[in-house]
Amino acid sequence: MHEFKVSDMSCNHCVHAITQATLTVDPQAKVNIDLPGRIVHIDSSMPADNFRHAISEAGYTAE
Question: Is 62 a domain residue?
Answer without folding.
Answer: no
